[in-house]
Amino acid sequence: MLLEALYHVPRDKWAYAYDPSTIHLRVRTKRNDVQYVTALTGDKYDWSGTFREIQLEKAAADSMFDYWEIAVKPKFKRVSYIFRITSDSENIYLADDGIHHAPPYPTGGYYEFSYIHEIDVFKVPEWAKEAVFYQIMTERFANGNPELNPEETQPWGGKPELDNYFGGDLQGVLDHLQDLTELGVNAIYFTPLFQANSYHKYDTIDYKKVDPHFGDNELLKQVAEACHRRGIRVMLDAVFNHCSEDFPPFQDVLKHGQASKYADWFHINEFPVQIKDGIPSYDTFGFYGNMPKFNTANPEVKAYLLDVAEYWIKEIKLDGWRLDVANEVDNHFWRDFRKVVKAANPDAYIVGEVWSDSLTWLMGDQFDSVMNYPFADKVLEFFCGSMDGYNFANEMGSLIMRYPQQTNEVIFNMLCSHDTPRLLSRSGQDKRRLKLAVVFLFTYIGTPCIFYGDEVGISGDSDPDCRKCMEWDSAKQDRELYDFYRLMIDLRKSNEALRKGRFRFLKADQHDPCIVYERMDERLHFTVWMNNTPESRTLSHPMETQDWKDALTEEEVVPTGGIMHIQLDPYGYRILYRLLDA
Asked: Which of 44, 346, 424, 574 has the fewest Cβ atoms nearer than 10 Å?
């Protein structure tokens, strides 16, 4: 047994309260080095009366480690514990004070979860577990009121550039809400809507005013109300890292320099404020001089931005905020942001834009979720590249173990966005590969999101090509692909096991890109079979029970001799389910 690989700490993602009565414990061991991990648990004030041995389950693995997990429900909301780790005939005991070769006397040196304080339990919005999001870039979605068009507006469907306009607006969204209802989505993520000089609106001038090219505040309120009547949640994009150079306080700094009362609203490194040799004398988003960075530690800036966050929650009964460039804003600000937003709407869903490991922001005091770009990268590398099942399962296992379970249940999963190439383009225009990736998206843990137009076959490379106009001519839409998306959305929405059930790979082998995995709760057991190759394949896996059905056709599928054999077309898939005993 490799003792150096053993790891557990009694905090963050390794020991945390899942709900007011349940504690989750995780342990790491070397890959394929250990047969069993057992938690020896009890109350430190009554060890003999509360002692229990609970065997952990291997929940995930990566290329180097196995991860074991168990849910503990202590009688008195506290627990002391150690782990007995078994490899062949060897037992060692992992405790807070180190590794022992014989069980230490309880409870000195044991790990402790001192008490489940309900106020400390990381609660995520339950509705986010049920949500299927649809990302809309309003300027490119639909032109509902040509009178709002900028002077330079180009014909709908033209080639997107870094600075051109096509006239999309909020009336266009309102006109097409029935289309979204028919697709089946029940949540919208809008990219920024507030007044700005650009078509994308990530350079805000007025945080409390809808951009006139999109409509006005009253129209946004009408859109939100219409969405809510249809059971569609609304999440807006907040750009609190930076603003536009035309933001009035920054203009005051440009005019009055060091004497401006807003000089400390920004990170001014040198006066006069200027751009010299392409480098601004003030901090910005990237090196874009037209997007000066806020000093969010300044109390006036913080008060201003928190007021904006609260204003829209109350004004349109906003359901959530997506936070642009969230990792470049100080953590103190986000902690206060969460308090203000949750006070205004305890059910608000807070999603940060962070492209890497985000545990820092996901411990219950800042965000509920982040945009899961690592998920997108690994899924597309597998389904659109040359990764085998073994390495894909390792990558997914690593991602699952990054965060506590309640975060995994609402992690914001997407396969593309306004910042990446379109899914169809990433798939090499191969719809079969695209469909495999989408099936995985809708049968995996977390909250799925579709980028507008993916469902009708819009393609596009990196920005600005990915930001094409929505195609509303049904003759030019891929209706077969649209029906596929509807089918997958309905399957997920109709089955709680696909939204909240456990996830586990059943087959993921080296040198083989075919996989089988399961989602399961107390009522339903799903298995998903995927042939990620250009040849027909028959996949086999032990399945002793006989009551399997095809989730999409209701055809009965019976194992032979305890082994299920599923024949799949090139880049084909099959989803099976069975009812579990009550």
From this structure: 346
**Which string of DSSP letters, residue by residue, matches 318-346?**
--EEEETTGGGS-HHHHHHHHHHHHHH-T
| SS3 track for 134-176 | EEECHHHCCCCCHHHCCCCCCCCCCCCCCCCCCCCCHHHHHHC
Distance CA 350, CA 560 (A): 48
* Catalytic annotation, residues: 324, 353
* β-strand pairing of 412-414 with 447-451: parallel
* Contact (Cβ atoms closer than 8 angstroms) between residue 248 and residue 236: no
Residue 512, token pair as written in the block = 């083989």
Query: Residue 89 has what pLDDT?
Result: 87
Dist. CA 312–CA 320, nearest whole Å? 10
CB 455 within 8 A of CB 183: yes
Which helix H or strand E contains 484, and what residues bound it?
helix 479-494
As separate numbers, helices (DSSP H) first and strands (DSSP E) second, the chain gives 15, 30
Render pLDDT for 181-224 as a digit per residue (tens, 0 to 9). Answer: 999 999 999 999 999 999 999 999 999 999 999 999 999 999 99
Kindly report the pTM of this predicted structure.
Answer: 0.96
Cβ 468 vs Cβ 460: under 8 Å: yes
Mention every residue, 6+ apart, whose C-beta is less than 8 A from residue 392.
378, 382, 508, 513, 515
- C-alpha 14/C-alpha 113 separation (Å) is 11
β-strands 412-414, 90-95 pairing:
unpaired
CA 193 – CA 200 distance, rounded (Å): 8
Q: What are 251-283's pLDDT values in tens digits?
A: 999 999 999 999 999 999 999 999 999 899 999
CA–CA gap between residue 420 and residue 334 (Å, rounded) = 26
- Return d(Cα 426, Cα 428) in angstroms, integer: 5
Give the chain's mean pLDDT.
Answer: 97
Sequence-separated contacts (24+) of 265-273 with Cβ below 8 Å: 265/294, 265/295, 265/298, 265/300, 265/301, 266/292, 266/293, 266/294, 266/295, 267/293, 267/295
Burial of 278 (0-12, 13-18, 19+ CB in 10 A): exposed
Give bridge partners of residue 57 from the DSSP assignment: 69
Q: Answer yes or no: are the C-beta atoms of 569 and 536 closer than 8 Å.
A: yes
pLDDT of 64 over the 90 cut: yes
For residue 259, the SS3 value is helix
